């Protein structure tokens, strides 16, 4: 039930975001004097509406987005009343049309920035200093997390019948203990713990000094055997090595909370990283199509494959059910930022396509004036319709692939 509630809440958050996107178009268009005749949340049959001034506002039956109707978006619009011609959007200066068309994406960026700032002062943002590389992990203090067993091969899996019990557990060590020496060899970090263990053999007795709750103590245990590659060559051949049956508990916090003022700087840093990640994700989209098809046809789902609104809502539901509030908010932030960037791509029918054409017209008119030729006028959108249909077709197929993958083989972040 909690998962379903989370899915519904995340889907509602997306619907609100898209509705505000359209509101951005509408409000800026009205501010410049353009005529807006309709603003609706959803598509399909009208459930409820009212008219205020010259604009009809309402809700439609299919809650999958929204739209606003601005009179005369292109010079080819044939439904413009003669009385509204002076207020047709295409007649306005290019900078005003640019603001109106980019207002939707700006709204998504604003929502993302506000959510980042709120997360920074309440939930905390991911710690940029948290160890992620092998070298950084090995510099962490040797604070241990106990394993129930020693997995006998170089693989991550749960304990299975027949696995050797953890020597650390037999020695009465606990999660959070910090190992300070083994057989007299000082241990200052997790890397030194690994090196010390590799200097011993399976079956050797290890005299272990450790600190628990600030108090030093000692114990001993007989080391088990496992299979691991060399420490300096993680892809090398595995050989039998001594094992203590512990992992690492990073002492560096995973997230950092900021004060209201410092949160602005943290928001800027997080946004820069998000922008880079979004651009890289867009660049990887074409090469992820085969991985999506593999997931649909029964293969393993790559967690780096794109997700649809359906997949994002499912992940939001998982985050809500597991009280992973930062993940829930981060999904909302990432989705808004991605939509904002995607909508600015210079392709019709996206907002960025209309912006690109407006500036192309402006640049062409300036160039023709410089060379003494007559202004060629507006771009004929009808001639661009084949390209527009291609973009719509590709986008539709890609959306269908992601939705199908999210239904038949969804990405999950929490074990079931």
From TrEMBL:
Pfam families: PDZ_6, Peptidase_M50. GO terms for biological process: proteolysis. The keyword Protease applies. GO terms for cellular component: membrane. Its main location: membrane. Its cofactor is Zn(2+). GO terms for molecular function: metalloendopeptidase activity. Keywords: Hydrolase, Membrane, Metalloprotease, Protease, Transmembrane, Transmembrane helix, Zinc. Residues 165-198 form the PDZ domain. It is found in: Membrane. It is a multi-pass membrane protein. The chain crosses the membrane at residues 99-120, 324-345, 387-408. InterPro entries: PDZ_6, PDZ_sf, Pept_M50_Zn, Peptidase_M50. CDD domains: S2P-M50_PDZ_RseP-like. Residues 10-364 form the Peptidase M50 domain. Belongs to the peptidase M50B family. PANTHER family: MEMBRANE METALLOPROTEASE ARASP2, CHLOROPLASTIC-RELATED, REGULATOR OF SIGMA-E PROTEASE RSEP. This is RIP metalloprotease RseP.
